[in-house]
Structures are given as structure tokens and as C-alpha cells.
Design brief:
- By secondary structure, the protein is of the alpha/beta class.
- The relative contact order is 0.10.
- The protein contains 8 helices and 7 strands.
- The strands form 2 sheets. It has a 5-stranded mixed sheet. It has a two-stranded antiparallel ribbon with strand order 1-2.
- The structure holds zinc ion (ZN).
- Zinc ion binds at residues 59, 61-62, 64, 70-71, 73-74.
């Protein structure tokens, strides 16, 4: 329950409190912060919130988040189209890009297969991936999925679908602890995992 008698302030606090990791006290601090700042600040905050909803789309090729279609990575003529890095989420692309070591392009699955949670292969972007490979320019598929039970299961499922095609399927070396997530890996761990790819 919100005890704030000023309605607009109460609504702002409520909105902040819905953000992950923000409790009532932090929400109150943030709301008062906005109140103290100039109107321009509130306007640019509001505009930034709307822009991420209005301007960001999924790339029609790799499904990464982007403001242009195809995304800057897919549109970059210097990226190696022989090599596709398969990841679960757009934030994994950001992490791998931060290493500067990936020369290829990506394919974002938008999750992993998890039958217990009702997530089936057709809920992911696997069909679009197969279509990219069917077109024939891909030589290596790197399974950069999270080293979890579901991530591994998804990688094996995709590998079996790819057995009909002339592509090498690899995965980053297991520098990452089992059950860990790519987004939390350290840079040096990622670098050695990316350089030391092994066949899947
Ligand atoms: Zn793309």
C-alpha cells in the first residue's frame, strides 16, 4: 500500500517499484530525485522510456534488437557470413561483442527449449536459423548458449537439425562453469572460451 498523499508522486513511486531490484525505499528516493530535478530531465527520461518501446525492433535476419533492419552487425560487410554464433538472448550479443573477438554474425534464439516450462522449439527462431543455413553461405555454427541443462539440450536439438547440412558445429571452450550464464562471465573467461572452440 502506498501512503503518499500526493497522487502523481505516488504513481511515480509505484512505477519505479515495479522495476527489478527496486524496493519501496529506493522507489521513493528515485521519485523525489525526479521531483527535485529540472523539467527537462523528466522529459528526457520519459522520452527515453518511450523510445525503447517505439524504436527498437528485432532484426529480420538475426533477431537481435536494433533500430534498423537489418541490424548494424548483419549490415556490416566486414562481418564473416560463414560463421553464425547462436545465442539465447539479445543481451548475450552485447556481451560477446564486448570481447571484439567475434568476426561472424549472430542468431538470437529468443530463449531456449524448456519442455517443463512449455517452451518448444517452434517458440524459438530455429526455423529462421535453418533457413539462413539452407541458403548455403554458412560454414561454422558456434553454439554460444548458456552452459545449463536447457542450453545444452537446445544446442543438441539444433545440432541434430543441422546434420543434413554441410556445416561444422562448434561451441566455445568450457571456460564457463556449468550452470552459469554468458551474461555474467568475465571478459577473460569469455576470451579464452571464444578462442578455444571445440566441436559439439
Ligand atoms: Zn541482424
Amino acid at each position: 500500500m502506498n501512503s503518499e498523499p500526493i497522487e502523481s508522486l505516488a504513481r511515480l513511486k509505484e512505477a519505479f517499484q515495479k522495476l527489478p531490484g527496486i524496493g519501496p525505499r529506493s522507489a521513493e528516493r528515485l521519485a523525489f530525485h525526479v521531483l527535485r530535478e529540472k523539467r527537462d530531465y523528466a522529459a528526457s527520461l520519459a522520452q527515453a522510456l518511450l523510445d525503447v518501446k517505439d524504436k527498437i525492433i528485432h532484426c529480420g535476419v538475426c533477431y537481435n534488437l536494433t533500430e534498423s533492419d537489418p541490424c548494424p552487425i548483419c549490415a556490416n560487410p566486414h562481418r564473416d557470413r560463414n560463421e553464425i554464433w547462436i545465442v539465447e538472448q539479445p543481451k548475450d550479443v552485447i556481451v560477446l561483442e564486448s570481447t571484439g573477438l567475434v568476426r561472424g554474425t549472430y542468431h538470437v534464439l529468443m530463449g531456449h527449449i524448456a519442455p517443463l516450462e512449455g517452451i518448444e522449439p517452434e517458440d524459438l527462431t530455429i526455423d529462421a536459423l535453418i533457413e539462413r543455413i539452407r541458403r548455403g553461405e554458412v560454414r561454422e555454427v558456434v553454439m554460444a548458449l548458456n552452459p545449463t541443462l536447457d542450453g545444452d539440450g537446445t544446442a543438441l536439438h539444433i545440432r541434430s537439425l543441422l546434420s543434413d547440412y554441410d556445416v561444422t558445429v562448434t561451441r566455445p571452450a568450457r571456460g564457463l562453469a556449468v550452470g552459469s550464464q554468458i551474461e555474467y562471465a568475465s571478459l577473460s573467461m569469455l576470451e579464452s572460451a571464444i578462442r578455444g572452440r571445440t566441436p559439439l
